[in-house]
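**User:** My hope is that you can spare some time for a protein that puzzles me. As I understand it, each token names a local backbone shape. I would be glad if you read both lines and explained how they fit together. The protein I mean follows directly.
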Amino acid sequence: MENRRNDALLIMEKLKEKYPKAKCELNFNNTFQLLIATILSAQTTDKKVNEVTEDLFKKYKTPEDFLTLTQSELEEKIKKIGLYRNKAKNILDMCRILVEKFNGEVPKNMDDLISLPGVGRKTANVVLSNGFGIPAIAVDTHVFRVANRIGLANSDNVLETEKQLMSILPKYMWSLAHHLLIWHGRRICEARKPKCEICPLTSECYFFNDKNA
């Protein structure tokens, strides 16, 4: 296990060198906006979300602001984004619960966050990490793919992958590791055609070494 931890730290150092500016690529000014943007980002690129929220967040800054909208009005404002009808419904239901149960504030713990409509464990971890500075590893499709390819995890299950990453990486690195793995997945370790020829992790990568064995 100690060897795996050392390997994990080496991988993180290489990724930090490759992506010194790795951070959340969603635009937001407060934790509530981060929550909305993260819900919108499911099966959609951050770039597309940022295009939509640039105008949305100018006028709608709080749960109360969003609740002045009907579902069809919100749908119209976010229709460039995939699954916009379902997301609009969840966002308005979520805002209602934030106002009624949490005094309009975004809760600061996993259990309360995942009780909100449209909020799963990944979204909750993004909010805890980027909104509240609480160490967390949000396992999205990029983190899941990259972590299992390079051997930081070995699972076909998202929750188990999260647990394995938390066990192999020191807690202070969890949030940064999340960003580094996402950036690597978006820029080099793509799903269909990973750019192994320019990857700094080929010597550690199980996927690359199995492919070239």
Notes: The two ends are 24 Å apart (CA to CA). The mean pLDDT is 95. The CA atoms of residues 4 and 42 lie 31 Å apart.
